[in-house]
Write a structure and sequence with these properties.
Layout lengths: L5 E3 L18 H14 L3 E4 L1 E2 L5 E2 L2 H14 L4 E4 L9 H4 L11 E5 L3 E3 L2 E3 L3 H14 L2 E6 L3 H12 L7 E6 L9 H8 L8 E5 L4 H11 L2 E4 L6 E3 L2 E2 L3 H14 L7 H8 L7
Parallel strand pairs: 1-2, 1-12, 2-5, 5-6, 6-9, 9-10, 10-11, 11-12
Antiparallel strand pairs: 3-4, 7-8, 13-14
């Protein structure tokens, strides 16, 4: 079995310090959190930006500051920026991270529209193509976000059109209210619905983060954890940091006999263009 690639999503667009006081918001804080997660075993940092007041933003300048700060603290980690932003953002502003002067290695690409709590997370096919083509122009490798099974079919359509290139990197996002629930049956269904050999990661929301992570380790997938998706360590106990969540996944993987990938190894496993970095 391939080594385990751990992604950390330290901030997100909706988590607040009322949810967890340890949430990193500003570029320096995010960089420190990512560095601690890198030391704990994370290979990929999935980044969201916040403005000076802590509100979600897709401003290119803010992402540029975050990327610069993260690279100073841990230059080998794989950087991934969100083009999902928040469900209430316009399609135009969500592409901001792709325009940074020194772009990230990866960016998220949600391949369909779904309910997102009381909101609608809109991703028309024309917009998906637009994002994917801009990523290709800038040398950014997409990670396909799958909130519903039909999004796999959309990704494979884009592959057939030549908009997406092999390998497609899938991230199964389970447990968002209004979208595909987090369960072993659903994760196994998604893992068996993609072409053989394609790398996949599971992202699960709230209390489902830990059981879905453990199942992904056993099934040969990869794992994302972090405050974007879950701020709790256990029932009634907030996680002290993002790094604490990463360290737990490392510990479980070691108990199950699966080694954890370094960033260099993760680049090879994910088929990134910068694998030689």
């Amino acid at each position: 079995m391939d080594k385990l690639v751990i992604t950390v999503a330290p901030t997100g667009a909706e988590t607040t310090r009322a949810d967890n006081p340890a949430l990193p918001l500003q570029p320096g804080e995010i960089a420190e959190a990512v560095a601690a997660c890198r030391e704990a075993g994370a290979a990929v940092a999935h980044l969201h930006a916040r403005d000076a007041e802590g509100h979600a933003t897709q401003a290119m300048e803010t992402y540029a500051a975050i990327l610069a700060a993260v690279r100073r603290r841990c230059p080998d980690i794989i950087t991934m920026c969100s083009t999902g932003g928040a469900a209430w953002m316009t399609l135009e502003e969500r592409s901001g991270p792709l325009e940074t002067p020194d772009p990230p290695e990866m960016a998220s690409l949600t391949c369909g529209t779904c309910n997102f709590g009381d909101e609608v997370f809109s991703n028309p096919l024309a917009f998906i193509r637009q994002l994917a083509r801009r990523m290709a122009e800038r040398g950014i490798s997409p990670e396909v976000e799958v909130f519903e099974p039909g999004m796999i079919a959309t990704a494979l359509l884009l592959q057939k059109e030549g908009v997406l290139q092999d390998p497609i990197r899938f991230n199964f996002v389970l447990g968002v209210p209004g979208a595909f629930p987090a369960s072993p049956k659903n994760l196994l269904f998604l893992a068996e619905s993609i072409p053989a050999g394609m790398p996949w990661t599971v992202t699960a929301i709230g209390r489902q983060q830990l059981p879905m992570a453990a199942l992904a380790i056993v099934l040969g997938g990869h794992v994302r954890v972090g405050f974007e998706d879950n701020v709790w360590y256990s029932k009634g106990r907030l996680a002290a940091s993002n790094a604490e969540l990463v360290a737990r996944v490392v510990r479980i993987a070691e108990e199950l006999g699966r080694e954890v990938a370094t960033p260099a190894e993760a680049r090879r496993l994910l088929g990134l263009a910068m694998a030689s970095k």
